[in-house]
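Figure-free illustration: sequence to structure, shown twice.
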Amino acid sequence: MEAFLLAFIPLFVAIDVLAVVPVFMTLTEGLDERRRRRFTMEATLTAFAVSLVFLIAGRFIFSFLGITESDFRIGGGIVLLVISVTDLVTTKEVRRDPGAILSVVPIGIPLIMGPAALTTILILVDSYGYFWALSSLLVNLVIVWIVFDQVRRVTRIMGKAGSRAFGKVAALFMAAIAVMMIRSGVMELLKKP
């Protein structure tokens, strides 16, 4: 049980589902219950699929492609920055494309399972083994799914105008998180000889 907790807590912090809730609320605003549940399932399954690949073959993939965790952090930050700026400067009607799979990008990747969470998974495998890393991953993703599934209650409390205002503020924070990811990736690259 101790090994599970030692694996669970760092991944819970790295995923930080509560920070993703405002963006999730914005992207699911106006969706009916069935589509929102599908959106929730797609985002969670995307995060699981990508994290499972990283759990099994992450170090090999980085080595094979010749990239570092810093490169990955910078790339994820750029994608997140583009999405957040687009959200800030456009209206929902212009931005929303019914055929777009927003549950995959940006929710599944890089918000739920971003560079910090993927790097944490690699560290957990090295520290506690595959069983505890996978167990903590599954429990964390169940928590993500539960939080997203209950997000409608939060939206009702805030109201439509409050949700929109909160969504714009969340996009600004998402841009700041993206810049932080890029900055930390660049700083790590500069430290290397």
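We now fold a second protein in the same way, so the two outputs can be compared directly.
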Amino acid sequence: MSESAITEVTRTSGPRKVVFVECAAAMGGVQFSTLYLAQHLDRARWNPIVVCPEAGDLTETCRRLNIQTHVLEQLTLRSTSFSIGNDVRLPNPAAWLWDVVALFIAARRLARFLRQTKPNLVVTKGLFPHFYGGLAARQSGIPCIWHVQDFISERFKGLYRRAFGLAARLLPDHIIADGAAIGRQLNAVADRSSVILNGVDVKVFRPGGDGTRLREELGLPAGAIVIGHVGRMTPWKGQHYLLEAFAPVARAVPNAYLVFVGDPVFDTDSYQNKLLDLTAKLGLEDRVRFAGYRHDLPEVLAAMDVFAFTSVEKDTSPLTLLSAMAAGLPIVAFDIEGVRELIDADEQLLLVKTRAVDALAESLLRLLSDQELRRRLSLAARRQVESRFSLERHVMSIEQVFLKLAERSRPALGKPFPAVADRQLANGRTVAKHSLHP
């Protein structure tokens, strides 16, 4: 639909309500994408409402930005598998049963909220919300979009993926995937899906920021060359590879420092503790800083000279990487598909074979020793984001899908949910993890 057509429809019908059903209120990449989208949708066309399972950073930020929010409490999900030894995982049938009950309870409560709110569109974010949000939207006769931003587990010979694929055929009207790899997992519903990569605000994330205050706060000396990483403290983000690669860099470059920004968010702190132990084992306590979770990402990136992106799987159009590119940082990254689909040419960043610690160290040393290379990478990365991954471009692509779906209606399915008393929710705690992955 053309821009003029969208304007004409909006002028005659007014803003449409869009309910975003979030999996958590703690801020991870999914939640930032929700915030960016809700914040930058054209308010003359769309009225965003963010629904979370608990209060937290996302709800507080939305309220500060005058974005309507609602807390819809849920029962705590249980792990759908359990470990035997280090490498063997088995299904947990009792947990499956519990989670199904939790799903129907959540769907009943959301359906009640949707009947009260009467939105034009429901957008689900996170695996559990895809299921209960899809059920609630279908019961209420409201078009539903799944915004899928994580891979589906292939464990147990693809059981999880097949279950997700079946639900994808039955529940959503459309699916938006934020990476080509996720799109392939949803090939069975390719006629009702789109791949739309993420975008960032190039006015907020831009070269030339001032990171002096943060450097002072972290106790970094004048003249320090800072290698930075931003992301959740979880094994698939690969921070331990970066730590190991930094050891020879620290020996070769006396003024090089490594800064990790982030915390476990949805996980326990076991991996973060392992990183702290590894830092001590490598004798890097004086050269490594753990800054924790920060709200001031533009300033964080401004305090860095080089950005390292070390995810070993899963990440698709990662917002931290796009933000670093927009900030004009020279970047070294593991060569995963989610990174490759952001670039048109290798000169936009340095790619390293995934998990190759020695190659990562060599690339970091190369960047630190070659100022002209850093300048070229910085300019190329910034141009790439400006041309392909601006937030305006991303929002416009999403709005096109929203408008097509918001024009539709579908018959409600009546009341398909078990009559589970809502009082059961009083004993439940909010969901701390946002998927049915084991």
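Summary for the second example: The chain has 16 helices and 15 strands.
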